[in-house]
Write a structure and sequence with these properties.
This protein is an alpha/beta fold and 957 residues long. It has five domains: 124 residues, Rossmann fold (3-Layer(aba) Sandwich), CATH 3.40.50; 245 residues, Spore Coat Polysaccharide Biosynthesis Protein SpsA, Chain A (Alpha-Beta Complex), CATH 3.90.550; 97 residues, Serine Threonine Protein Phosphatase 5, Tetratricopeptide repeat (Alpha Horseshoe), CATH 1.25.40; 153 residues, Rossmann fold; 162 residues, Rossmann fold (3-Layer(aba) Sandwich). The chain is 42% helix and 16% strand. The chain contains 36 helices and 30 strands. It is globular and about 105 Å long. 49% of the residues are buried.
Length: 957
């Protein structure tokens, strides 16, 4: 397409929108072959996209990103804009935008990922995410030839061809994957003659892809020239490929012509060779990938014909550089590697020959197993490039077999055509296991469960070891709503193959949907400790099941068993504070966790405060559902003096989109950093670029805390606004209310805020004295935050008062959690009719319930949540157990501040006695008037106290 314009800026938007700078339709890119625009390579400095449409798929998005990378100048910017930060974050999360941009050769540009107005006509966006096109550096002179060696037969000729190169600034790395010492001996002789050769032996052997990757990582040259141990280079190979790189700005892969030879080194003129072009040229990488997929021929050839940048190959996110979409492509690894590289840039093709590749019976691709797998490999390759956006919308590559045709029809939802193709496949090849498997899926999709079972059993008769197929059928049945059939198939698969660990979460889900929640938990617990890639999915499903049961103790045990998962270890430690953990044990656990998350080498020393201008304060929050933390954050963002503070919101909540409080907070902050999209290195870099004077982490230990990044930030003052001290960490200081400080600090004292160090926002609910026959206690702290120890105490109280009832707040939980609590009380001889279950998830609902209650009961451990201040607000007394620990002091401190210290118990017996006395001698808690006068409900006082104390602490630092 001829170039019709050369613009400095470009807006990509819906066809109906207009702008003062050139515009182009997104649909014309995302839905068209190769997604081309009429703009030249490297011609645009900045591209604005208001927002990717909701109907855009991953493939559409990848096409847009690749085309933007093509037309952007080096260091050019792509800005995705929207007025609502949550909407922007949602689309970025849905499309995995940062990772997709990375795969297309664009990197997130953190400096501009903040809230800034964009003055563009008809594009009124207040937020944007910015990606940049890196400037490709001219490679240094040194080239690394990497030889992943397995056979010694042809290696001597291979090495001799390396030493004969006209380009001399080389290093030659031989990586030995062989079972004996023959390669080591041969290479040792060469090393004695030429110091450019180095040798590494792999113990144990790594395999082709890992062996090559290891060599690339060890290489010193920025340009990598892979060479197979049975191939040879032409003398000018490196020189020609290097020249192609230097002359092609956006080149990510150089490749040249190759000549096949036989085992004796004779040319094979009859062997078909097809290159990507007749003459030396620069070719859009997307065209090459599509050509390979359409033709079924790798026109680029073997790795020996290629050269690429070390940085580009190491940027591949796949664990195996010879795989696509998580699956290794046996016999097609070179095409997979090329696909990753050409997704990020162009091909520089050299029409002169660069290598001789040997055709002999010992080659991997000529082995029986490889040939048998080649059909599946090509099918996976073609499916993958379709998913990666290398063809137009609705376009499909022609199938290569009846089986592939049937699978394609099934995936398109055309069951009739799929049935026709798969039936023909079985006629021509009765042993094709996958044909029976897909027929089973088709029957399941149409509710024909007996026929589905018959086909999967046919498949298992042919391949008894393929229990995974039956497990996949079971999960498909679950997806389609056939719960019992899904459960049966998954159970049979696991019974046949007990170590089929990926099937266990699906089986547990089937059991859960069948009402067997306890059995599902027991099943998952039996395999949760087995190591392997499925363990994280098993543990995640187990935690989900245990949470539905409201089983705090077993959740803690599950987290503690996951010793390699530091996030779960942190969550387990936090949950233990609700179960009465011993302080010394908790401290040791926290110090162990912190030493693993942030060893001293990662704990960056604090810089000195600048002492001039506004104080830059960064707030880190990972869960906007934590109402207290989110409430404090929004209040501070609203009310901190603009002339004194510049605010930075570090949003680490992956569920931010759709959360109104999160969106309001993002709009209020002066700068917004989408931390959930960044890894620890990128987040630490982003925060250090923002240069906060104060960093406040709201999270404390837990599954989402970004401690490894926070410890690398060199802010003068770093605070953990948590009820748990950051034991074992230097430079991070606890912040809490004066009344919540532990009785023994044992380290750096917390930075204390006034009172409880919090602000309460309470509704104007009318106080009603409801009349009822039986006395009513209530524990309205959500049941998932209440330990079995507390339930036991409440059961003992009900025993002392046979006519009393207990109101229990299930929060967001349902029947299984209710049944578990009923069972706990039944074991203590308390009937279920003495328990009244409600669900209250906000302060208004809590206040309404307190009107029906006589006495509130604080959990024995933990902070009591919003249930306690709302209890006082509705002028109901409650009982709390005293505690010396900051994580359990809040209930007693709230009573003592309100002048109700006589309701604070010294032990469990005293707790029950006080509660019983309150039933016999009712006492109205004068809470509402006190709270109205208290700083706890004075927003101005809270913000001023926060600002003053932090400013003083910053000066002292």
């Amino acid at each position: 397409m001829s170039d019709i314009t050369h613009a400095d800026s470009l807006v990509l938007c819906a066809p109906t929108e207009t702008a003062e700078i050139p515009t182009f339709s997104l649909s014309a890119i995302g839905k068209a072959p190769l997604g081309r625009t009429p703009y030249a390579n490297n011609s645009i400095s900045k591209i604005f996209i208001p927002l990717l449409p909701t109907d855009f798929t991953k493939a559409d998005t990848l096409r847009v990103l690749r085309e933007c990378r093509r037309i952007l100048k080096p260091k050019g910017k792509l800005l995705l804009c929207h007025e609502a930060v949550s909407t922007l974050a949602l689309r970025a999360q849905q499309l995995d935008l940062q990772e997709q941009a990375h795969d297309c050769g664009l990197e997130i540009y953190l400096e501009d990922s903040e809230r800034l107005p964009l003055q563009i006509a008809r594009v009124n966006a207040a937020h944007y995410l910015c990606f940049a096109k890196p400037q490709k550096k001219l490679p240094p002179p040194r080239v690394s030839i990497v030889i992943p060696a397995f056979r010694v037969t042809y290696l001597e000729n291979c090495l001799a061809s390396c030493l004969a190169q006209t380009y001399q600034d080389l290093e030659i790395i031989v990586l030995d994957d062989s079972p004996d010492r023959a390669i080591e001996t041969l290479v040792g002789d060469f090393m004695a003659r030429d110091k450019r050769i180095s040798y590494m032996r792999n113990t144990p052997p790594l395999g082709e892809a890992e062996n090559l990757t290891r060599g690339i990582r060890l290489a010193c040259g920025e340009l990598i020239k892979p060479l197979c141990d049975d191939d040879e280079l032409y003398p000018q190979a490196v020189e020609r490929l290097l020249a192609a790189f230097l002359s092609t700005p956006d080149c990510t892969l150089a490749s040249g012509k190759r000549q096949p030879i036989d085992a004796s080194g004779n040319s094979l003129s009859q062997y078909p060779i097809e290159g990507p072009a007749e003459n030396s040229s620069c070719i859009d990488g997307r065209e090459i990938i599509l050509k390979i997929g359409e033709s079924g021929i790798n026109c680029l050839g073997e790795p020996s014909a290629m050269m690429f940048r070390r940085s580009d190959i190491l940027a591949i996110r796949e664990r195996n550089i010879m795989s696509l979409e998580g699956k290794a492509c046996i016999g097609l690894g070179d095409a997979c590697t090329a696909t990753h590289l050409l997704s990020r840039g162009d091909l520089a093709f050299v029409a002169e020959p660069v290598c001789r590749f040997r055709v002999h019976v010992g080659q991997t691709q000529r082995q029986k197993d490889t040939l048998r797998e080649s059909e599946n490999t090509w099918r996976h390759f073609r499916e993958s490039i379709a998913a990666l956006g290398f063809m137009a919308e609705g376009e499909a590559l022609p199938p290569r077999s009846e089986l592939e045709s049937g699978i394609a029809h099934f995936q398109a939802g055309n069951f009739e055509a799929a049935l026709h193709s798969l039936s023909r496949c079985i006629v021509t090849n009765p042993d094709e296991v996958e044909a029976y498997f897909y027929l089973a899926l088709i029957c399941a999709a149409q509710g024909m469960m007996p026929e589905s079972a018959s086909f999967i059993h046919e498949a298992l008769m042919l391949a008894p070891e393929r229990s995974d197929l039956q497990a996949q059928l079971g999960e498909y049945c679950l997806e389609k709503g056939h719960i019992e059939a899904g459960r049966q198939h998954l159970a049979e698969a696991v019974a046949r193959q007990a170590d089929l660990f990926p099937a266990y979460p699906g089986l547990a889900e089937a059991m859960r949907q069948s009402g067997q929640l306890a059995e599902a938990a027991k099943l998952l617990e039996s395999v949760a400790s087995y190591p392997g890639p499925a363990q994280s999915a098993i543990v995640a499903k187990l935690l989900e099941v245990l949470t539905q049961q409201g089983n705090l103790e077993r959740i803690v045990a599950c987290c503690n068993r996951a010793r390699q998962d530091l996030a779960l270890q942190g969550l387990g430690i936090r949950l233990q504070t609700r179960s009465g953990i011993d302080a010394q044990h908790l401290r040791q656990a926290l110090e162990r966790l912190h030493s693993r998350l942030c060893p001293p080498s990662l704990q960056t020393p604090a810089r000195k405060p600048k002492g001039n201008g506004s104080v830059r304060i960064a707030f880190v929050l990972s869960d906007f559902q934590r109402t207290t933390a989110a409430r404090h954050l929004e209040l501070l963002l609203r009310r901190l003096p603009v002339k004194d503070f510049l605010t930075i919101l570090v949003d680490n909540d992956p569920n931010t989109p759709g959360n109104e409080l999160a969106e309001r907070s993002a709009l209020l902050a002066d700068r917004y950093i989408p931390a959930s999209m960044l890894d620890d290195d990128a987040l630490a870099q982003s925060l250090n670029d923002a240069a906060p004077d104060i960093l406040v982490d709201f999270d404390g230990p837990g599954a989402r805390q970004r401690l490894a990044a926070i410890c690398r930030v060199n802010a003068p003052l770093k605070l953990s606004w948590s009820d748990l001290p950051p034991w074992g960490l230097t430079g991070l200081r606890q912040m809490c209310g004066e009344w919540l400080q532990p009785t023994e600090n044992g380290g750096v004292p917390p930075l204390a805020l006034d009172g409880l160090g919090e602000f309460l926002e309470l509704p104007a609910t009318e106080i009603v004295r409801a009349a009822h026959e039986a006395p009513r206690f209530a524990c309205l702290t959500p049941s998932i935050r209440v330990s079995e120890d507390s339930w036991d105490c409440f059961a003992s109280l009900l025993k002392r008062l046979p006519d009393a009832l207990l109101v229990v707040n299930l929060g967001e939980l349902a029947g299984p959690a209710q049944q578990r609590i009923v069972d706990i009380f039944a074991r203590r001889e308390i009937n279920a009719d003495r328990l009244h279950f409600i669900r209250a998830n906000d302060t208004e609902a809590l206040c309404a319930i307190w009107n029906e209650v006589d006495v509130g009961l604080a959990p024995l451990h933990g902070d009591g949540d919003d249930a306690l201040p709302t209890c006082l607000w509705m002028e109901r007394p409650y009982v709390a157990l005293d505690s010396p620990h900051s994580w359990s002091r809040r209930p007693a401190a709230l009573l003592q501040l309100a002048g109700l210290g006589h309701l604070v118990a010294v032990d469990r017996e005293n707790y029950q006695k006080i509660a019983e006395q309150l039933i016999h001698t009712p006492l109205a808690a004068p809470g509402r008037e006190w709270l109205r006068r208290s700083p706890l409900t004075d927003a101005s006082h809270f913000v001023a106290d926060f600002a003053t104390r932090l400013a003083k602490a910053l000066i002292a630092s």
